[in-house]
Amino acid sequence: MNRNKIIVIAISLFFIYYFFLSTSINKNNNNNFKNFNNNNHNNLTTHSKQMSKLFNSIFISHGAPNLILDHTDKTREFLKTLSKNYYNSVKPKAVLLISAHWEEKDFTIQTKPEPDVIYDFGGFEPEMYRMKYPAKTSPELIERVSELFAKAKIPLAKDNKRGYDHGAWMPMKLVYPDADVPIVQLSIKENLNAAQHFHIGTILRPLREEGYLVLASGGSVHNLRAIFDPKYHLDPSWASNFEKWLQNTICEKSGKERENELLKYESLPYYKLAHPRSEHLIPVFVAAGCASPDSKGVKVHDFWKSPVFSVSSYLFSEPQN
């Protein structure tokens, strides 16, 4: 059995469990979520007014694809209100989306004019396999990203067959349900080198001032095996400690200090538990690199689907707007 099949099976099992837990855990966390969301929305009222000048880069934990069916899911609620709460309902010219679910040997950009939806999961409700998201790509954004890569002398491959994976179409179906904002996916590299991805973020930085939104989609704590194995739940501090480290690094540090701290994540004693393979963390480096050194990291979504699985999201707010 090849690696891709193993990954699909593992993801499918996780999603079934994820959806099963949703109702009970959402009820338990409802009050905490409301308090957190209200506090952070109040803190970010000035941010949403800034969107006429610049689109802040953001990292979201996309969660399971079938959360789109669960109207009690707090991540679903967060994504539904993301544009209104944090971008003042101003739509970007297009979204450059970096998903944990697309890896290539070299950075690759999606060029298919009207990408299909990829059902890169199994064992879900039949409705999931009937869902569509008829967004289009943006030739202008594709050309601009190509220019930025060329200027930085970094190879950029093009894929004219690639569709939207669930790390892209599912959250975008909630954020922009009318599919009226062009979406272009940019792959991560299969080497999962954090420094390279942070650097890619820096070369994409001009996009924010040109009317484009750079959105990274992954997961803040992502260990599928831990969800099913009770031994990981006996002491889940490894998960909470990683989330605390991520939050402190993004929200309390800036500039070179934030960059250096993020890039040393592999030295953390609990990182291999939080991310046995780091593909769901790698997108955060692109979002962080895309932000200016004096940007302020803000945790805009704080939610645990289980004691060992966090779906937090972080926005990088620019002070100069």
Descriptive overview:
The protein has eleven helices and ten strands. The chain is of the alpha/beta class and 321 residues long. The strands form three sheets. A six-stranded mixed sheet has the order 5-2-6-1-10-7, with helices on both faces. Strands 3-4 form a two-stranded parallel sheet. α3 crosses α5 (166-175) and α6 (194-203) packs parallel to α11 (282-290). The longest helix has 41 residues, at 3-43. The chain is globular.
List the helices and strands and how they pair.
Blueprint lengths: L2 H41 L1 H4 L9 E4 L12 H14 L6 E11 L3 E3 L28 H13 L5 E3 L6 H10 L7 E7 L4 H10 L8 E7 L5 H5 L8 H16 L2 H9 L7 H4 L7 H9 L5 E6 L2 E3 L2 E2 L2 E5 L4
Parallel strand pairs: 1-6, 2-5, 2-6, 3-4
Antiparallel strand pairs: 1-10, 7-10, 8-9
Provide a short characterization of the protein structure:
This protein is of the alpha/beta class and 321 residues long.
Alpha-carbon distance between the termini? 51 Å
What's the alpha carbon Rg, rounded to whole Å? Answer: 18 Å
Low-confidence stretches: 6-10, 14-35, 45-52
Give the amount of beta strand, in percent: 15-25%
Shape by Cα distribution: globular
Count every beta strand, where a strand is a DSSP E run of 2 or more residues. 10
Work out the helicity level.
Answer: 40-55%
- How would you state the average pLDDT, rounded? 88
What is the string of helix and strand elements? HHEHEEHEHEHEHHHHHEEEE
Q: What would you call the structural class? A: alpha/beta
Number of helices: 11
The strand order across the widest sheet is 5-2-6-1-10-7
- Tell me which oligomeric state these chains represent: single chain
Main beta sheet: strand number and arrangement? 6 strands, mixed
